[in-house]
Amino acid sequence: MSQNETHVLPLKIYLLIFAVLLVMTGVTVQVAYVDLGFMNTVVALGIACFKASLVVLYFMHLRYSSSLPKLFWVAGLLWLAMLITFAMSDYLTRQWIEQPQGWARNRGISIEQVAKQ
Amino acid sequence: MSARPGAVAHQFDDARQQREAAELGMWTFLLTELMLFGGFFVGYTAYRHAYPEAFIEGSSHLDVLMGGINTGVLIMSSLTMALAVREAQLGRRKGIIINLILTIVFGGVFLGIKAVEYSHKIHEHLVPGPNFVLDSPISNNVQLFFSFYFAMTGTHAFHMIIGIGLMIWLIFKARSGAFNGEYYAPVEMVGLYWHFVDIVWIFLYPLLYLLGRH
Taking the model in full, what pTM does it have? Predict the structure, then answer.
């Protein structure tokens, strides 16, 4: 009977989550047509994160899991955050300093002239 | 797995531990999937940052309505998948099969709409490669957007096809009475996989279809 310790969620919860997911899809489409500047992306991702959290917590039952799967999930998000942060810290900062032009420019000659030599 | 449904494999103390081991293994697999799609999303972010106008122009060629209907269809399929797992927990064989069939139907509708969208893109010459034609000064960069579009939605669709295959396998297993209220781990694990694929689409839809609509 040990299996029966698992939570069988009431049907109501599944239908409620389903309804919220549909409503939020509608909201994200509506908001996309309003000009909020860069906040459009922030709002769209925020809604997507909210929807994803509902799916993970209720449809995937993570809320009712033991602590180890929860820890794994947090670790996964951490790795994803590292992937995004480290990659973007390169791409976003490339224009911050002038690119070194090399010795050819310092000597007052162009790359084409160097190639001919 | 074992011949007797509900039997606990000898390396586990009890059914609960066995179930949690399966759950943990599935989460580990899904996190590697998260890294796979994470790579796509980072690539998307880097190039959208580099060519914002091209990504907005590319996005305007996508069909918001079809993408929106597909989002709804996929959420619907997630609901029926969750209900299939619930029926499995309650040990109702018929309920499992009905809900899995519904999930397959919704998944099929999604893939059908996706196929229509792909064929529109082919007719409009928006598939990256030698046949890409777009009257725009930044058509090369728009091509980059469509490379991401096809790679990301294609990988997502491929995952769905695998998921549908797994569900057909589950239906056969359920018919032969492999699951009961004690043992239903395969249904639950395929459920986790299917919900993950749903989550990927939850992010793909706003990022590909909705950016720059205003």
Answer: 0.89
